[in-house]
Amino acid sequence: MYVEMCGEKEYTECDLTAKAVQTNGGETQMFKKILALALVLSMALFMVPAQAEEAESTFPAIAKEDLKIGMIYVGDTSDGGYNYVHDSALMQAVKELGMKEDQVIKKTNVPEDATCETALRELVEAGCQIIFADSFGHMYYMEPIAEEYPEIIFSHCSGFINNGVNMNNYFGRIYEPRFLSGLAAGMRTQTNKIGYVSAMDNPECNGGLDAFTLGVRTVNPDATVYVKYTNTWYDPTIERQTADALIDMGCDVIAQHQDSTMPQVAAQEKGVWGCGYNADMTSAAPDAHLCAPIWNWSVVYKTELENVINGTWKCENYYLGMQEGMVGLSELTKNCVEGTQEVVDEWTAKIMDGSFDVFDGEVKDNTGAVRVAEGERLTDDEITSINWLVEGVVVA
């Protein structure tokens, strides 16, 4: 469901028609290679303004009262995480634009398989003029449908296919608030052991893990981050069991790259602390939760819907960060140590004014090799294709 990459040299080995590969339970090596080119290509679109300027809208304006919106979710909107924040953001945008809730037709629990094609066709038949999907693997089913219906707009989260006509992509620099959450975790830990429950051993997940660890070690260079991979985006039972295992190892802060709140619930019940993801998870773990990197998908949803209504929609991609309000950090809770707010504010200001980027050098990997030299700065496509773990990370 999230963007993942494989090296550019792997492109000739990538079967970009491999839509039969499913990512719900665990990813094969082939799928990891498929995604290598993903963000390399998408960043080319994201980072070249001239392309966006050349992409003129060919879609007529649609009165907002006549607009029908389709939305495909890979999970349930009640998950308290990934799908929940997408749904909340879309409905917020609809409300702010003065539209009615029943103008949105939702398809939930749509896996990354042929079920997605069926869901897309149902939304087309229902008369939707713009259709969103929130999971990476949906892209392979959306692409041929978009070609079949060029008069309909298709917008996909975290993918890389932009057909230049009616299908684009959107994602963001979540590594920025990941770094900030690491500051809070590094200041909170007493054992100097921090656990990280991660969905996949892939660039998207590992880039976030690296950013988090860089934040941890900025304030606490003696701390170690122990990661365990669940090989699933959403399985509350496995997420809980993995968090428990890390706590049993002596980790007293539990961070996560998972869709449910269960790692935070485990932290609450075991008397340690935690950093959630996707949404503010304080309500699930009021005595444990420190903060969470969060998404504000409404920045994209509102913009895209406004453009459809105004007849100004263009087939351009969105890749936004804290400066644009796409990503951020939830409010720090009472569980943070004294002084955390001041430290977070200091580094937030540096990110916002551009004087600091999370992967500014020098950065070493966990073998001691220098990956980013002093004075160098990784580009967005390099960050989203990271296939190494920073110094201070141990795979448990």
Q: What is the topology, as strand order, of the major beta sheet?
A: 2-1-3-4-5-12
Q: Kindly state the number of beta strands.
A: 16
H/E series: HHHEHEHEHEEHEHEHEHEEEHEEHEEHE
Overall spatial form: globular
Structural class given helices, strands, pairing?
A: alpha/beta
Distance between the termini: 24 Å
Please give the share of residues in helix: 25-40%
Number of helices: 13
Overall pLDDT score: 87
Low-confidence runs of at least 5 consecutive residues: 1-54
Rg on CA atoms, Å = 20 Å
**Beta-strand content:** 15-25%
Task: Please tell me about this protein's structure.
It is a single chain. The chain is α/β, with parallel strands linked by helices. It is globular. Helix content is 37%, strand content 16%. The chain has a six-stranded parallel sheet, sandwiched between helices. Helix 4 packs parallel to helix 11, helix 7 crosses helix 8 and helix 9 packs parallel to helix 10.
